[in-house]
Amino acid sequence: MQRKGSAFQGLGVVTLKELSDHLSGWRMFVLEWLIAITAVVSVYGAIQQIRDSTAEDPFLLLRLFTRGTPLPFVAWLSFLVPLVSIGLGFDLVNSEHNQRTLSRVLSQPIYRDALLFGKFLAGLATIAISLLALWLLLIGLGLVALGIPPSAEEVGRTLVFLLVTIAYAGVWLALALLLSILFRSAATAALAALGLWLFLTFLWAPIVANFLTPSDDVLAALQTQLVLGRVSPSTLFSEIVAVILDPSLRSTQQSIFAQMGFMLLERGAVPGAPIPLLQSVQVVWGQIVGLVAATILLFVTGYVVFQRQEVRA
Amino acid sequence: MTEQLIEAQSLVKRYNGVAVVKGISFSVAPGEIFGLLGPNGAGKTTTILMLLGLSDISEGRARVVGHDPVREPLAVKRRVGYLPDQVGFYDNLTAADNMRYMARLMRLEVEQREPRIKSALEHVGLAEVADKRVATFSRGMRQRLGLAEILMKEAQIAILDEPTSGLDPLATVELLEIIRNLKSRGVSVLLSSHLLDRVQSVCDRVALFSGGKIVLMGTVPELRHQVLGGAFPVEVEAEGDGLRDRLSALPGVRSVEVIGPNQLRMLADRDVRAEAAAAIVASGGRLHRLSDLPSLEMIYSRYFQNQSEAGERHAA
After folding, report:
1. Same domain for B265 and B130?
2. Could B75 and A5 be called an inter-chain contact, meaning their C-beta atoms sit closer than 8 Å?
3. What DSSP line would sit under B33-99, residue for residue?
């Protein structure tokens, strides 16, 4: 049966209210501090390493993202982004149930679609604002510390990296939103989300690969691990940033084997020669689509469950 | 014929194949206060949610302000104000900010918002605390804030789910007065409650629910007539000689029985309490107590008592 009226009526109102809640809450305050500390620690660590490298390196700005002690910036982000996304999303819907505000809000002339989509958009916008701030902070600190203006190619690559990181955040936010719909208890939703993150990031590939491959065939186990690992958003994100932030990489395997001391080269390729940004994007296009698809899949699952739920608490 | 603001025809709601609302029909006229009364779990809230388009209708049809709540829920919700059972607010926001959020969702014009919020809060007596966080509000204040939202909306129908539940007697009286004011503003009210006696004074008509069905519907005197057979039972506690005969002699009195020391029960065709009191005093007796007219609670329980007796007779 066709419903009358736009499904998105009230979307802007819900999004602005949620965004205002996020930006003025304690969680955002903690997030801002995390951002500042991460940026300063990353730049400091990266500068220490970059000082030892050659001045002729044409991608010094990118090194700010990929080098550093104790962890490079991208490694910080791969942990920070899921935690922040889960932190913002684990009580988006169940808090409306627990505060008994859901039926009151939905008795206004809006559909559930607008409420759910508005909450997701506001969460993603909050993370996007934080990541943008972090990106600007990092580039600004890098400029001051290095004293060399970045090239257009470098800025383009870091911009693509920023967009990919937002998409990566979208996956975890959609997962947290789904769990906040499934579980009425916010604590249960948070615990389930953190458990899934730990499992997918650290346990999924090694456990399943070991289970599926013979123990004596190391290469087969590694290949299986590589394929299965891509079920995890963290693996997809790592593969994307490795290629986007290192113009010398021509494939995702190259980065993995390079870590193991091997060098894979296509026929006619010059070792270490950079490839254009567009080609780098093409190399990881599948992974980018995978992240976006996972976000959509999780959001749609949550949407269907939410539409079928009873409003009464 | 007056167009009904709410029309429910044979509404059925099933959860996993089990019917919780079983083919109920009723209507609410403009300016009427209609009570959906009955115990918890009888299907009152489910019926309300179906009328608001917040829950699917398994069978039957409904029209609210001339719109189908299934196909046109936005049109319905634009004209209907809803106060849920145990209404919740965003505790981190002030009363006025909570209302501003709702005003934006209602799509009120910018220039209309503040005057309407101010006027509604004044009407429910919360103007003084408009800028206080809702976290500090009592249950009664929250209920009144919920009613303020309905006033701000200028709804044609106010649907109130258990509005007096959990309120102290004073807060209940205040809330019932606000509900009467809604009626005086021309707003139709559909209210549900399991506290039959508390709300019977404000209702023009009531529907008594049991097990997902409406078992009785009409005005309170109509129900009294329907269930008690047109009789007005009155209990008298008085001292004096020959009171039974004097009361039996009053016009309209069908019977008088002694139910205890100085306690009599009269059955009359009409309300004879004033004449009974006068007769006792005139005979030199001392009147201690006259019972109220039968309450909805009594009518409701008597109805089920009658049903059970009829069932037993049928079985015999």
Report:
1. no
2. yes
3. EEEEE--TTSSHHHHHHHHTTSS--SEEEEEETTB-TTT-HHHHHHHEEEE-TT----TTSBHHHHH
3-state SS class at B188:
strand
B244 in a structural domain: yes
**Confidence category of residue A269, pLDDT binned at 50, 70, 90:** low
pLDDT score at A257: 56
Mean pLDDT across the stretch B62-84? 94
Question: Could you give the angle at which helices A186-198 and A73-89 cross, rounded to 10 degrees?
Answer: 150
Segments making up each domain of chain A, as ranges: 11-308
For residue B107, give the nearest of A102, A109, A312 by CB distance. Answer: A109
Across the interface, of A101, A107, A310, the residue whose CB is closest to B82 is: A107
CB contact under 8 A, A107 and B84: yes
Answer whether B84 sits within 8 Å of A111, measured CB to CB: no
Q: How many CB atoms lie within 10 A of CB B29?
A: 14
Beta bridge partners of B191: B35, B160
**Is the Cβ–Cβ distance between B75 and B157 less than 8 Å?**
no
Nearest by CB to residue B72, choosing from A4, A102, A106, is A4
**Sign of the torsion angle spanned by Cα atoms A113, A114, A116, A122:** positive
CB A69 within 8 A of CB B53: no
Region A62-82: mean pLDDT is 84
In a shared domain, residues B208 and B261: no
Residue B316 falls inside a structural domain: no
pLDDT digit string, tens, across residues A74-102: 888 888 899 999 999 999 999 999 999 99
Residue among A95, A115, A72 nearest A180 (CA): A95
Over residues A292-302, the pLDDT tens digits come to: 999 999 999 99
Q: What is the ipTM of this complex?
A: 0.83
Beta-bridge partners for B35: B191, B206
Contact A4 B71 (CB under 8 A): yes
The Cα A244–Cα B109 span in angstroms is 48
Q: Looking at residue B253, which CATH number applies to its domain? A: 3.30.70.100
d(CA A177, CA A174): 5
Average per-residue pLDDT for chain A: 85
Whether residue A70 is preceded by a cis peptide bond, meaning omega within 30 degrees of 0, is yes
d(CA A173, CA A167): 10
In a domain, B197, yes or no: yes
